[in-house]
């Protein structure tokens, strides 16, 4: 039994293994998956001395507890939360040395939704289609963590992390999503198109890794006929029959049969990972030329 492993003491509400995902397989019906807050996951890996594509843990709201079998460096980023080692306060957003047999506890998020826990060497579960990410929609990758599970770790890189601490954006008090119109905005009335970018929506409690669901004014369709299934991209704003927009996130389906009224710029999507239910959502229409500049 290797000592390069993590024992899961407390799995939390939903903790999954995530890396950069498995893009490029949509033609096979395989979602992209990967960390919802990519910059936070990459920063956690950097603080822990890992390459940016190493697999880390993504927690949801109430964190998790872990016991390493060997001494490791750990970094917690994303949603601000209390971090302790054997009950003693430890740093959030900075490298923490955890000795073999000690218990690292990542507590409930004070703000935001998802924390990222990177461990030196990375989570070394078996990759599927080039990624170690858990995909909740297709079931690919490792299952969500359960109490008592053991996760293998890769060999740590030599040398220390090149950064001791780094600034991180705060979880949004208002989620602002820049959108370009289409490809099916012509399936909606002109009033509905204006409504999307002029009224406030709110994050629904039904949101998950597949999509950020919203509550707010319904968008009226101009066409009532059936739309054949067509390809869906990350950030697509699909409108189901109830008329409220859904923003597709990392585990979104590769095809869908409801019209897409707009598409969110990918740079704005990490903030969606940290938007709690009830957070105001504002869709802002911008020209495609402005979006290309980031």
Automatic annotation (TrEMBL):
Keyword Hydrolase: yes
SUPFAM superfamilies: Cyclophilin-like
Ranges for domain Carboxyltransferase: 27-291
One Pfam short name: CT_A_B
Keywords of this entry: ATP-binding, Hydrolase, Nucleotide-binding
Keyword Hydrolase: yes
Domain of life: Bacteria
PANTHER family xref list: 5-OXOPROLINASE SUBUNIT C
Name listed for the protein in its UniProt record: Biotin-dependent carboxyltransferase family protein
Species assigned in the record: Streptomyces heliomycini
């Amino acid at each position: 039994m290797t000592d390069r492993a993590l024992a899961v003491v407390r799995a939390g509400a939903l903790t999954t293994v995530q890396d950069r995902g498995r893009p490029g397989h949509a033609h096979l019906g395989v979602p992209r998956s990967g960390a919802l807050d990519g910059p936070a996951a990459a920063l956690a890996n950097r603080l822990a001395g890992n390459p940016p594509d190493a697999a880390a843990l993504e927690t949801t709201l109430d964190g998790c507890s872990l016991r390493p079998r060997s001494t490791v460096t750990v970094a917690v980023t994303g949603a601000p939360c209390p971090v302790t080692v054997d009950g003693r306060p430890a740093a959030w957003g900075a490298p923490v040395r955890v000795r073999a047999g000690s218990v690292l506890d990542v507590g409930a998020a004070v703000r935001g939704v998802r924390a990222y826990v990177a461990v030196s060497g990375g989570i070394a579960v078996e990759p599927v289609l080039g990624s170690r990410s858990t995909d909740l929609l297709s079931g690919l990758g490792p299952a969500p963590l359960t109490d008592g599970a053991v996760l293998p770790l890769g060999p740590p890189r030599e040398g220390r992390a090149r950064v001791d601490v780094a600034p991180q954006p705060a979880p949004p008090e208002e989620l602002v999503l820049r959108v370009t119109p289409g490809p099916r905005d012509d399936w909606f009335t002109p009033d509905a198109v204006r409504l999307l970018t002029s009224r406030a929506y709110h994050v629904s409690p039904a949101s998950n890794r597949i999509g950020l669901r919203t509550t707010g004014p319904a968008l009226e369709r101009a066409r009532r006929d059936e739309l054949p299934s067509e390809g869906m991209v990350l950030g697509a704003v699909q409108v189901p029959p109830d008329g409220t927009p859904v923003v597709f996130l990392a585990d979104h389906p590769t095809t869908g049969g409801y019209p897409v009224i707009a598409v969110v710029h990918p740079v704005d999507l990490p903030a969606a990972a940290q938007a709690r239910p009830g957070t105001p959502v504002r869709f802002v229409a911008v020209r495609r030329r402005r979006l290309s500049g980031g």
